[in-house]
Write a sequence for this structure.
């Protein structure tokens, strides 16, 4: 672990710190990690970023399965990290617990909902951290804080002991300082070994870059050139219309949100109606949206999702990659949350269009911390075929060796 | 729907009946269905087969996403079906709510945990029913009651609004009178259309048949011959050792159980410790097992699982099928629950060895009601590649047309 000059208190990354020693020895020996507070650690309540939730749920009697795997492989757990309320935000500003520090851009949000996890890594307080990623909650804070972030293929890392948000998209994500720690950690969680192989085709998705602010496009240009130099003739410009049958990219975000909101209402609606929790104003508005949805539309959205899924699966050959910006903008400034909507040209629709590719496709996505705009980090993302997480981690290590050395 | 001579009361299949009309029109017009009581219907509590659970959880404010899909496609929901406590049994004898009728073998259990769902279909009270299937909870009652049962590929039918048991294996299953209704229903839930294609190779798995009682082997012989006549040269005897690298079949059940029990403890352990619910004696013993597990072993079990998964994925080519008995014995007699263990030659280890193939492989499995032993139903199962649910449903319809006409 990098020695930090930032203290735990200065970071505001943690709900609580402790020292939970490893239960075995293996590829994570000597590493320490933080756990997002929607993931169970025995003896702790999973507060899920909201005091009413914390007070109305019992203490965990067992670690989440993913935590158990990491301890068994030699890692040490040092605390639970602050997150957005019920994991339903991409910002990282918690009304009750404050905003974890983004050390690379202190006046901007760290990103959420795995805000404390990303902050703890970026502040050098842990080697890696567990987050979750439904709509971007690991990828976005990785991009904002300038660290490595990984969302796995859906269904390949156990979510037992992780609070559900929208199960069709919920995954356990990993944030880390470097590609080696990232690959080792994800390999433990996937219970597989990393295989090294070269990419077949890297599709640089035009519409995804066009969706980003001009300064982001500019800031990522050099990184894309580096990827091009590294992988040469395998890199090519691709239109999403070719990839997904001419559908407008904006429709991906709407499809994603209709399913996500319906599932959030199914998973959390009864508790909200019963417990009547206090939420921060931004989160309250978000949950209001999920309860106002015309639920009959979810059937149509699911059909659209499966069409996109199949099309992506047909187009992405083994060892192919998609290359997109992780986020379309710089991290928002603290204290000015953008409007929550799935349509239009605001922060959320554009961000969700980008994050929905992997969500809808059940695909693994890696956010690489290899770019910046005036010193503020911006992530470049690579997305692989469903189940090719190992291949994607191998590519991560190749890129790190070439670009970050 | 078949007109039933058995009344709702005689069936003891339902927790409650109601009339929830469709919200749209489509491929399920005119059909009615029951919902296992671990799946949300707005305005009802999901009792999950246990009174303490019912009383300590709020009323659902929204239908589960899968229920929403069925209503939208024209089906009518007529009630919530009894199930085993917290869905953690394969028998169907509920200490609090009694045993739903198995009309084909009234002195034997219907099978669980989707007991009432299977009973309602088998008694002719509904056209189809939703169950869940983690370790066999849809496939086993389908086999016991002589109806069609389907477990989908893991992760392809939304589980939002379905109470989690062991998320790495949890699926929403369907029980139906006939292959056509089954295929139409599953197609709505998967949000795909069924494609017809011929099987490449049907692997009749020797060890799976050897695991079954002699009368089951004998009873399934004719069905296997029928499948052989139907698909001819594509059918061949296969050893699981060829399929899965020489591993003993018994190990599959142990691997499955270590993960399942760890996940159950993660999902339900805190509630059990906090609410101290009364359980039936058999279920209490089962939950005791999950809390006594050495949880450090789950990491090793997950590695073994992924090895098996990859091997199955390599061996099962597109359009290949595995053919196995759904259950290794006749349905147990009522009132004499077999011992709950994952080792040895008892009911559970042998049954779980068979059901763990699809569970560990994330594979779709179909139980066909095309055999019996002295009039008592016995299911024959076909298992397809991950994601080939549509193909498997097409095969079901082909078989029904040829064998059941």
């Amino acid at each position: 672990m990098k020695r930090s000059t930032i203290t735990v208190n200065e970071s505001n990354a943690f709900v609580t710190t402790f020292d939970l020693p490893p239960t075995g020895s293996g590829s994570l020996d000597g590493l320490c990690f933080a756990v997002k507070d929607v993931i169970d650690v025995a003896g702790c309540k999973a507060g899920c970023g909201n005091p009413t939730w914390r007070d109305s749920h019992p203490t965990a009697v067992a670690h989440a399965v993913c935590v158990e795997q990491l301890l068994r492989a030699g890692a040490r757990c040092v605390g639970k990290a602050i997150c957005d309320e019920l994991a339903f935000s991409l910002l990282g500003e918690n009304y009750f617990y404050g905003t974890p520090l983004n050390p690379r851009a202190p006046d901007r949000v760290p990103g959420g909902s795995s805000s404390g996890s990303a902050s703890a890594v970026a502040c050098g307080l842990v080697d890696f951290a567990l987050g979750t990623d439904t709509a971007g909650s690991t990828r976005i804070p990785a991009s904002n804080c300038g660290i490595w972030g990984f969302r796995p293929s859906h269904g390949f890392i156990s979510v037992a002991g992780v609070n559900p948000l929208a199960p069709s998209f919920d995954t356990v994500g990993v944030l880390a300082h470097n590609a080696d720690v990232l690959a080792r950690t994800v390999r433990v969680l996937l219970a597989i070994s990393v295989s090294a192989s070269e990419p077949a085709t890297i599709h640089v998705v035009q519409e995804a870059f066009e969706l980003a602010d001009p300064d982001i496009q500019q800031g990522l240009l050099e990184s894309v050139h580096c990827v091009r130099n590294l992988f040469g003739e395998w890199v090519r410009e691709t239109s999403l219309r070719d990839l997904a049958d001419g559908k407008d990219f904006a429709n991906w975000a709407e499809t994603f949100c209709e399913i996500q909101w319906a599932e959030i209402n199914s998973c959390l609606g009864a508790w909200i109606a019963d417990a009547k929790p206090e939420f921060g104003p931004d989160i309250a508005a978000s949950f209001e949206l999920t309860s106002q949805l015309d639920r009959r539309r979810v059937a149509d959205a699911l059909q659209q999702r499966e069409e996109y899924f199949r099309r992506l699966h047909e187009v992405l050959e083994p060892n192919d990659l998609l290359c997109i910006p992780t986020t379309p903008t710089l991290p928002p400034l603290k204290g000015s949350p953008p409007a929550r909507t799935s349509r239009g040209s605001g922060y959320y629709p554009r961000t969700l269009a980008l994050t929905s590719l992997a969500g809808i496709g059940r695909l693994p996505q890696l956010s690489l911390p290899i770019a910046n705009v005036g010193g503020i980090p911006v992530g470049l993302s690579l997305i692989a075929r469903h189940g090719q997480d190992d291949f994607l981690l191998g590519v991560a290590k190749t890129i790190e060796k070439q670009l970050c050395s």
